[in-house]
Amino acid sequence: MFGAIFRRAEQSIDSAISLATRRLIIAVPFLIGAGFAVAALVTWLVQELGPLKAYAGMTGFFVVVGLILYVATPLTQPEASAKPSEDEVIADGATAASSPIDTEVLLTAVAALGPTMTPMLVRAGWRNLPLLLVVAAAIYLVARFAPKDMESAASLRGSPASELATGAPA
After folding, report:
1. Neighbour count for residue 23 (Cβ, 10 Å)
2. Which of 44, 82, 92, 152 is the most exposed place for a label (fewest CB within 10 A)?
3. What is the DSSP annotation of 81-146?
4. What is the Cβ-side half-sphere exposure of residue 74, based on CA atoms within 13 angstroms?
5. Per-residue model confidence (pLDDT) at position 94
6. How far apart are CA 34 and CA 23, in angstroms?
7. 81-93 in b/e burial notation, b at 16+ Cβ within 10 A?
8. Higher pLDDT, 12 or 80
9. Using alpha carbons only, what angle is made at residue 63 by residues 141 and 65, rounded to the nearest 5 degrees?
10. Residue 11 and residue 101: Cα distance in Å, rounded?
């Protein structure tokens, strides 16, 4: 009796995972293309309007898109319509076949993975904490002390940056 339930739960989870994986594989090239399109748009806007107006415009654009998605996406799950009883589902094979993903089983599996994955992620983060701190410090230092443009870097006489900018040793 329980074997059939476990097989059905396993099939539902496998089906959901394979569907999500296929959708993700399809979405990745589109997301990369969208990223390059945004980068090209920002570059063009900076040239046309200047950096302040360009970045402010892109910020406003993404805020508006986020608000539209927030309003358009329901935050609660829709009310469950009259669900057939288990006897009806077993008697009517079409009802079970029409819903390849059993939501309750899928949510149970996801809820079971949370407590299992959280300690592993915390351990991995703790184990790599020195590396994460070094990377964060390097990003901070590069962002803080990097010259804003090559002309200001060229003004630093005798530095490697001036050699790069002028092509000749200082």
Report:
1. 10
2. 82
3. --PPPHHHHHH-HHHHHH-SS-HHHHHHHHHHHHHHHHHHHHHHHHHTHHHHHHHHHHHHHHHHHS
4. 4
5. 47
6. 16
7. eeeeeeeeeeeee
8. 12
9. 125
10. 8
* Token duo for residue 128: 């790599």
Q: How far apart are the first and last CA of the chain?
A: 83
Asked whether the beta carbons of 163 and 169 are under 8 A apart, the reply is: yes
Mean pLDDT of the chain: 73
For residue 87, which amino acid is it? D
Q: How far is CA 163 from CA 12, 142, 146, 148, 150, in A?
A: 62, 19, 16, 17, 11
What does pTM read for this prediction?
0.38
The separation between CA 16 and the C-alpha centre of its own chain, rounded to angstroms, equals: 19
DSSP state of 155: T
CA 112 – CA 7 distance, rounded (Å):
17
Task: Tell me what pLDDT residue 74 has.
Answer: 73
For residues 170 and 159, the answer to whether their CB atoms sit within 8 Å is yes
> Distance between CA 113 and CA 80 in Å, rounded?
25
* Alpha carbon distance 150, 167 (integer Å): 12
